[in-house]
Write a structure and sequence with these properties.
Number of strands: 4
Radius of gyration: 20 Å
Strand order of the largest sheet: 2-3-1-4
Structural class: alpha+beta
Oligomer: single chain
Number of helices: 5
Distance between the termini: 14 Å
Strand content: 15-25%
Largest sheet: 4 strands, antiparallel
Order of helices and strands: HHHEHEEHE
Length: about 150
């Protein structure tokens, strides 16, 4: 599906605030609320809109550490790790990447001891490197440029 100008405007509204009503989006883009709802439903059905979510502050929930952990998997351990990583509550994002490492994870942890325990779980799968996140430079830039 090629996005027309109205669908592009609707997506921009939803990316700024997914809780906007169809009526409010309609006012912003110049069409009726039912037309907005129909267009959103079609974009959902086509997979253009994948999900709506609430972003929660890990720090407010007691997770004082955020870290970036890379893993260079041992021979034969990548596939088992790809299955296992989905079970780790600490992992909020995980990517399979190119380069020297196979995996990069964004993790949240309660404290230094929690980090140690988490790393200990990973070392049977490969060699890890950990960087502690000091601050966020770009906040929730999951907005896809819609043109």
């Amino acid at each position: 599906m090629k996005l027309d100008a109205l669908n592009t405007k609707i997506l921009k509204c939803l990316q700024q605030n997914a809780r906007l009503s169809s009526a409010e989006i309609g006012r912003q883009v110049g069409i009726s609320s039912p037309a907005v709802s129909e267009r959103i439903k079609k974009m959902e059905d086509l997979g253009i809109i994948e999900a709506y979510k609430t972003i929660v502050s890990p720090f407010e929930l007691g997770y004082q550490f955020k870290a970036i952990v890379t893993l260079r998997a041992f021979m034969g351990k990548l596939k088992p790790f790809l299955d296992k990583v989905k079970t780790y509550d600490e992992v909020i994002n995980c990517y399979r990447i190119t380069g020297d490492e196979n995996i990069v994870m964004e993790v949240v942890l309660k404290n230094q001891k929690h980090l140690e325990i988490f790393i200990d779980q990973l070392i049977s799968y490969g060699e890890t490197k950990t960087q502690i996140v000091l601050s966020r430079v770009v906040k929730h830039k999951e907005v896809i440029p819609v043109k």
